[in-house]
Design brief:
Distance between the termini of chain A: 39 Å
Number of strands of chain B: 10
Radius of gyration of chain B: 13 Å
Largest interface: A-B, 20 and 24 residues
Shape of chain A: globular
Shape of chain B: globular
Largest sheet of chain B: 6 strands, mixed
Number of helices of chain A: 0
Strand content of chain B: over 45%
Structural class of chain A: mainly beta
Oligomer: heterodimer
Number of strands of chain A: 11
Distance between the termini of chain B: 35 Å
Helix content of chain B: under 10%
Structural class of chain B: mainly beta
Helix content of chain A: under 10%
Number of helices of chain B: 0
Radius of gyration of chain A: 13 Å
Strand content of chain A: over 45%
Chain lengths: 118, 107
């Protein structure tokens, strides 16, 4: 079965760090464009970051310099290292596959909640 | 970045009625537009890609149209399970922006 399963969310203080994981099954992470998308409580979807199949990365301006996307090919897992967290980073974080064939995010994880609060 | 504007923000209809949702881009995205459905507590689900192609397992009552800057998602006859929030997303440029969403609610 093709699926993504996120983990690693939780409560963290402002200025703190957290690492999210996204384990893939049924397909190879390194052969695809993999993304993180977040959704603040009661709000819409915001694209956060991408790692291309070649390994290059890109970030939304709101997280550039604070977040780092990476992958472990041996574990078929995607990561998001989040540093210098702010209250406005509070959101559900989803990982999603960007299908090159369908030009859309065709596989999504169930999401993991990150709360930044003192 | 490309801004996507969805209208209306909320659409109140009854089961069996036809729903028409709009998405307008601030510049041309060609046909690189997708539609997603999101229900409370769930991840978004891909409905339509490349403006008019239904994703796997999506019922035929969902259809998409448009190109350039103006796009439409149509649900021909609403089923109870269709009441949800719908987002459009462009895949023409980075960042991959989303519209703000249209909430389809039961009248």
């Amino acid at each position: 079965e093709v699926q993504l399963v996120e983990s690693g969310g939780g409560l963290v203080q402002p200025g703190g760090s957290l690492r999210l994981s996204c384990a893939a099954s049924g397909f190879t992470v390194s052969s695809n464009y993999m993304n993180w998308v977040r959704q603040a409580p009661g709000k819409g979807l915001e694209w956060v970051s991408v790692i291309y199949s070649g390994g290059t990365t890109d970030y939304a301006d709101s997280v550039k310099g604070r977040f780092t996307i990476s992958r472990d090919n041996s574990k078929n897992t995607l990561y998001l290292q989040m540093n210098s967290l702010r209250a406005e980073d509070t959101a559900v974080y989803y990982c999603a596959r960007d299908s090159i064939a369908r030009h859309a995010f065709d596989i999504w994880g169930q999401g993991t909640m990150v709360t930044v609060s003192s | 970045e490309i801004v996507l504007t969805q209208s209306p923000a909320t659409l109140s209809l009854s089961p069996g009625e036809r729903a028409t949702l709009s998405c307008r881009a601030s510049q041309s995205v060609s046909s690189f537009l997708a539609w997603y459905q999101q229900k409370p507590g769930q991840a978004p689900r891909l409905l339509i890609y490349d403006a008019s192609n239904r994703a796997s397992g999506i019922p035929a009552r969902f259809s998409g149209s448009g190109s350039g800057t103006d796009f439409t998602l149509t649900i021909s006859s609403l089923e109870p399970e269709d009441f949800a929030v719908y987002y459009c997303q462009q895949r023409s440029n980075w960042p991959r922006t989303f519209g703000q969403g249209t909430k389809l609610e039961i009248q």
